[in-house]
Amino acid sequence: MYKVALNFEDGVTRFISTMPMETVADAAYRSGLNIPLDCRDGACGTCKCHCESGEYEMDGYIDDALSDQEAEQQFVLTCRMVPESDCVVRVPASSEVCVRSQQADVHARLAEINRLSETTLSFTVSGDQVRAMHFLPGQYVNVQVPGTDQTRAYSFSSMVDEAAESVSFLIRVVPEGLMSTFMTAKAQVGDELVLRGPFGSFYLRDITRPVLMLAGGTGLAPFLAMLEKIQQQGCEQPVHLIYGVTQDADLVELEKLEAFANSIDHFTFSACVASDESEWPLKGYVTHHMKPEHLHDGDVDIYLCGPPPMVEAVNQYMQEQDIQPASFHYEKFAASQ
Questions:
Q1: Paired sense of beta strands 239-245 and 267-273, if any
Q2: SS3 state of residue 8
Q3: Which coenzyme or cofactor does it need (predicted)?
Q4: Tens digits of per-residue pLDDT, 190-231?
Q5: Chain CA centroid to CA 307, Å
Q6: Is 316 helix (H, G, I), strand (E, B) or coil?
Q7: Number of neighbouring beta carbons within 10 Å of residue 239
Q8: CB within 8 A of 327, min separation 6: which ones?
Q9: DSSP state of 117
Q10: Do residues 84 and 62 lie in contact, with contact meaning Cβ atoms separated by under 8 Å?
Q11: Is the CA virtual torsion 320, 75, 306, 61 positive or negative?
Q12: Taking the CB of residue 316, how many other CB atoms lie within 10 A of it?
């Protein structure tokens, strides 16, 4: 048996013991702690932490969940990490988020489907159980595709509307995608959807310094929920969002962003399109539009959500430019085939 110290970002440390060949995630759960976890197969990256000391074995994961560079830097997937000595692991979440709670199925009804563009749609679910959902803006749920045993992960794109007992999501339309096909060809208002969660350590922390948000494609969804929360609570710090997409058709929810800019003090945003054929005035990638005034000489919290190539490009850019923010939180996603 080995002891593992779990250091949470709010300064709390919890100690667990692992049995022979037991992963850190399983040992934590057995000890009454729900550290961030979802797939348990080394595929989603939800359980990514940093091993600050100790020896371990780790295999059976994919690059999208943990890159070679991250592995070299001692980042680990706790669902695949088997300690071979006492270890110290830094968990990118507060201890309060990781208290034992059973994820339960939430049964909801499809209340609305909106085709926002050729490539993107939004959907809203409602019901008594939805009103009782508790999550942090930035987290996601697994939604079961009706008529199958398959699920797809979607970030909340709104907070719960308690009056309407509803909450919303963004989805990229993937040709022949399981959920995409259901939503575009089969779904009807009133259909039942089953949600499980919330999951993820990508969520909005207390805002104590300037914030820079970087969104790629439907990675805009968690930021819409974050901005709704900021709108409700108010904010004295500058918050800037850079929203990047590949084609003009991928630009969605700009009216919502404009509304947030008009209602949230110190919030600004810009949107850029990578395609050379774009008619949008601002071209290029999000890294082309990260200005010194957004970085505040490193006194900034950066949040990044987008597809793996975007996340890796931003990581590489920050290393090349020696950008060292006060905190850096990111989540990468890929469309399920």
A1: parallel
A2: strand
A3: [2Fe-2S] cluster
A4: 999 999 988 888 999 999 999 999 999 999 999 999 999 999
A5: 11
A6: helix
A7: 24
A8: 205, 301, 302
A9: S
A10: no
A11: positive
A12: 12
Place of tokens 């006060």: 326
pLDDT along the chain (337 residues), means of 10: 93 93 94 86 91 95 90 95 96 82 80 96 96 90 94 96 96 93 95 92 93 97 97 95 97 97 96 96 95 95 94 92 93 71
> pTM of the full predicted structure?
0.84
Name, in order, each residue with C-beta under 8 angstroms of 137's C-beta and a sequence gap of 6 or more: 156, 159, 203, 204, 222, 225, 226, 228, 229
Looking at residue 64, what is its pLDDT? 85
Please classify residue 137 by burial: count the beta carbons closer than 10 Å to its beta carbon, then call 0-12 exposed, 13-18 middle and 19+ buried. Answer: buried
Place of tokens 């970087």: 214
Q: Which amino acid, one-letter code, is at 61?
A: Y
Alpha carbon distance 33, 243 (integer Å): 35
Cβ–Cβ < 8 Å for 124, 161: no
Question: How deeply is 15 buried, as exposed, middle or buried, from its count of CB atoms within 10 A (0-12, 13-18, 19+)?
Answer: exposed
pLDDT of amino acid 133:
87
Please, what are the domains in the chain? 2-91 (3.10.20.30), 105-199 (2.40.30.10), 211-332 (3.40.50.80)
CA distance 41 to 250: 31
DSSP bridge partners of 122:
114, 170
Give whole-number Cα distances, 107 to 3, 130, 179, 197, 327, in Å.
39, 8, 17, 12, 36
Q: What is the pLDDT of residues 128-173, one digit of tens each?
A: 999 888 888 999 999 999 999 999 999 999 999 999 999 999 999 9
Q: Is residue 286 within 8 Å of residue 256, measured between CB atoms?
A: no
Can you give the pLDDT at residue 335? 64
